[in-house]
Amino acid sequence: MVTESVTWWGHATTLLEIGGQRLLTDPLLRDRVGPLRWSGERPPPGLARSVSAVLVSHLHRDHCDLPSLAGLPSGVAILAPAGAARLVPSDQRSRVHEMRPGDQLTLGGVAVEAVHAEHDGRRHPVGAASPALGFVVRGRGSVFFAGDTDLHPAMADLRHAGIGLALLPVGGWGLTLGKGHLDATRAAEALALIRPARAVPIHWGSLRVPGLWRLRPRMHTDPGSRFALHGSRTAPEVDIVVPGIGVPVGVPAP
């Protein structure tokens, strides 16, 4: 029996191996993006070599990194929010599938549904509107990749979807988290709404502004353990796993 798994590679970059497909989320595959640097292990150079598709949650530069998308193998489908195709080079646009919440697409034996994320997904603060997305991926098991989001009522709908594993953001790269983000405590509240069988915290501790992060180091070092602590109280039936970078976590079977 093939075991379905999720591997976190830092920030919002994860590899989903599900339904015989390999899906990469929000790939950030280079040494830096703007002032941000990896604080430890970064995604390996060949990570995107054999992926079936890429899921892009929104157009911010640390989630929709154009040089990383340009380095994808030919033919890899890019599932991204409406407005994404205009950003990529013209020779890539034919493989960009623009989606809005509620849209669905099938890749091999895997169904991918775009769902709402409570986040400003525009490329620039005054740029054209573009939705921020989460994705529910269903193969033999099911994975919810939240992207960047704050709490919102529709999260409770996912409780009825039978999510096997939820990937929830619990931190960030700055000294504060603004509107449209989950910290460890609020991610634990989201966990109580979604009630997956298993949860993995992402989007914490892996990207930093050199020097600046030392002003509030626990903003970078503690979110994973704090999420596990709060989640054990708000949703004690959920198996919370805080893996190291590059360590696969199994997706529970339905």
What is the level-2 CATH architecture name?
4-Layer Sandwich
pLDDT < 50 runs, ≥5 residues? none
The CATH C-level class name? Alpha Beta
Distance between the termini: 14 Å
Q: Give the radius of gyration.
A: 17 Å
Outline the biggest β-sheet.
Answer: 7 strands, mixed
Shape: globular
Structural class: alpha/beta
The fourth-level CATH homologous superfamily is Ribonuclease Z/Hydroxyacylglutathione hydrolase-like
Give, in spatial order, the strands making up the sheet with the most strands: 8-7-6-3-2-1-17
Average pLDDT reading: 93
User: Would you count the extended β strands for me?
Assistant: 17
Give, in order, the helices and strands.
Answer: EEEEEEHEEEEEEEHEEHHEE
Give helix % range.
Answer: 10-25%
Query: What name does CATH use for the topology?
Result: Metallo-beta-lactamase, Chain A
What share of the residues does DSSP label as strand, in percent?
A: 25-35%
Summed up, the helix count is 4
**Total domains, how many?**
1
